[in-house]
TrEMBL record, chain A:
Organism ancestry: Eukaryota, Metazoa, Chordata, Craniata, Vertebrata
Transmembrane spans: 85-107, 166-184, 196-215, 256-281
Name by which UniProt lists this protein: Very-long-chain enoyl-CoA reductase
Entry GO terms, CC: endoplasmic reticulum membrane
Organism expressing this protein natively: Chlorocebus sabaeus (Green monkey)
InterPro entries: 3-oxo-5_a-steroid_4-DH_C (IPR001104), SRD5A/TECR (IPR039357), TECR-like_N (IPR049127), Ubiquitin-like_domsf (IPR029071)
Enzyme Commission number(s) of this protein: 1.3.1.93
Domain 3-oxo-5-alpha-steroid 4-dehydrogenase C-terminal: 155-308
CDD domains with a match to the protein in the record: Ubl_TECR
TrEMBL record, chain B:
Enzyme class: lyase
Pfam families (alphabetical): PTPLA (PF04387)
InterPro entries with a match to the protein in the record: Tyr_Pase-like_PTPLA
Biological source species: Colobus angolensis palliatus
Primary role: Catalyzes the third of the four reactions of the long-chain fatty acids elongation cycle. This endoplasmic reticulum-bound enzymatic process, allows the addition of two carbons to the chain of long- and very long-chain fatty acids/VLCFAs per cycle. This enzyme catalyzes the dehydration of the 3-hydroxyacyl-CoA intermediate into trans-2,3-enoyl-CoA, within each cycle of fatty acid elongation. Thereby, it participates to the production of VLCFAs of different chain lengths that are involved in multiple biological processes as precursors of membrane lipids and lipid mediators.
Protein name: Very-long-chain (3R)-3-hydroxyacyl-CoA dehydratase
EC number of the protein: 4.2.1.134
């Protein structure tokens, strides 16, 4: 069996960083990354981007050395992706914040509203209902992060956690401040409005969860396989007939429901910002589905049936 | 995280879209949301201060861009663009801050652009507090932009002195 030699150069300076000899032909990029870490321990595998061309795309961990277009001496270019943090850590932190912060406002902890309101309780039913819904939503997200989702990437850049937490925690505090305010005004159309909004919220939460389960079942544990998602027996998943990312569709729906329930402008703004971001993600996902699968169902739109 | 396709931008000059948009927005804000909206500050000297600073800056800056595009940039223009900011930028910032500060009591008195609780959209906005936040934001932002320009100056003016040594 012929062994390969692998030299790793810095993508920017072309400096020779590492030379590996006697590398097995069926070694994967992941294994090469591990070998590289031995000589440069500060660059753990998650922060290494190895590519064949200094300006090219990163090679995947699963790529096998002998299948790459290289001679028996392979030259790989290294780029430092910066400090990394696991997706699970980021998700748990960014979701635990809103759960906790909202409750601070709900219980009217001192120094938020006037002192005469400390630890008082709202007289509006909808305020209690809103707390239950908001808390349920984030508990659901935390549990899904721990038990449902199968992430294709292990890590993301460290700075993302600050960005993401500012967004989630900031908006949670902003919404919670108004909904739990002593001067909160309940919805104009009263109990009817709240009931309708609650129904929308519950349906969309169930829908979102159904999609997460369906996506999980597409991918066996520990693998990174990608398949086209299809509707299952669960009626909530039938939205796959019309959109590529029904989880985002249901998520937007949940927040619209919550906005109608609380009739609170900051909630509507949060829904709008979230919708914008999710649309960008959905369009990207849709595009990558189309690129990867020739037989992708043509009726599907990224996030809103027939429209967007 | 995937980096989904970013739409291409048309580039006529090499300035950063983000930094420039930021500057345009802050200018529009000063003009419309402060000076135009609060008539009482229009006679302040601080308004004169930032208008003069902006005017001189823009005349030089656009001359710079125009000559650059025509591939005939007199050194004087390049020098002016990367040197006069040293005085003009603090001048403009002082004018802006003093104007916002002068507007504060009138904003508070009139409750300008402000909405308070209770209301049916459960939303509030205090323009007076917002203006104070804007003033505070100058503290981290101004030094960054100023030293960015100083850094650019060092890079670009020393380049010319070495007769365009290529890297």
């Amino acid at each position: 069996m012929k062994h390969y030699e692998v030299e790793i150069l810095d993508a920017k300076t072309r400096e020779k960083l590492c030379f590996l000899d006697k590398v097995e032909p069926h070694a994967t990029i992941a294994e090469i990354k591990n070998l590289f870490t031995k000589t440069h321990p500060q660059w753990y595998p998650a922060r290494q981007s190895l590519r064949l061309d200094p300006k090219g795309k990163s090679l995947k961990d699963e790529d096998v050395l002998q299948k790459l277009p290289v001679g028996t001496t392979a030259t790989l270019y290294f780029r430092d992706l910066g400090a990394q943090i696991s997706w699970v850590t980021v998700f748990l932190t960014e979701y635990a914040g809103p759960l906790f912060i909202y409750l601070l406002f709900y219980f009217r902890v001192p120094f938020i509203y006037g002192h005469k309101y400390d630890f008082t309780s709202s007289r509006h039913t909808v305020v209690h209902l809103a707390c239950i819904c908001h808390s349920f939503h984030y508990v659901k997200r935390l549990l899904e992060t721990l038990f449902v989702h199968r992430f294709s990437h292990g890590t993301m850049p460290l700075r993302n956690i600050f960005k993401n937490c500012t967004y989630y925690w900031g908006f949670a505090a902003w919404m919670a401040y108004y909904i739990n305010h002593p001067l909160y005004t309940p919805p104009t159309y009263g109990a009817q409005q709240v009931k309708l909004a609650l129904a929308i919220f519950v349906i969309c939460q169930l829908g979102n969860f159904s999609i997460h389960m369906a996506l999980r079942d597409l991918r066996p544990a520990g693998s990174k396989t990608r398949k086209i998602p299809y509707p299952t027996k669960n009626p909530f998943t039938w939205l796959f007939l019309l959109v590529s990312c029904p989880n985002y569709t249901y998520e937007v729906g949940s927040w619209i429901g919550f906005a109608i329930m609380t009739q609170c402008l900051p909630v509507a703004l949060f829904s709008l910002v979230g919708f914008t971001q999710m649309t960008i993600w959905a369009k990207g996902k849709h595009r990558s589905y189309l690129k990867e699968f020739r037989d992708y169902p043509p009726l599907r739109m990224p996030i809103i049936p027939f429209l967007l | 995280t995937g980096e989904w396709h970013k739409p291409g931008r048309r580039r006529i000059v090499p300035s950063s879209v983000v930094l420039t948009s930021f500057q345009v927005m802050s200018r529009v804000f000063l003009i419309w949301a402060v000076t135009h909206s609060v008539k009482e500050v229009q006679s302040e000297d601080s308004v004169l201060l930032f208008v003069i600073a902006w005017t001189i800056t823009e005349i030089i800056r656009y001359s710079f861009y125009t000559f650059s595009l025509l591939n005939h940039l007199p050194y004087l223009i390049k020098w002016a663009r990367y040197t006069l900011f040293i005085v003009l930028y603090p001048m403009g910032v002082s004018g802006e801050l003093l104007t916002i500060y002068a507007a504060l009591p009138f904003v508070r008195q009139a409750g300008l652009y402000s909405i308070s609780l209770p209301n049916k959209y459960n939303f509030s906005f205090d323009y007076h507090a917002f203006l104070i936040l804007i003033m505070i934001s100058y503290i981290p932002i101004f030094p960054q932009l100023y030293f960015h320009m100083i850094h650019q100056r060092r890079k670009i003016l020393s380049h010319t002195e070495e007769h365009k040594k290529f890297e």
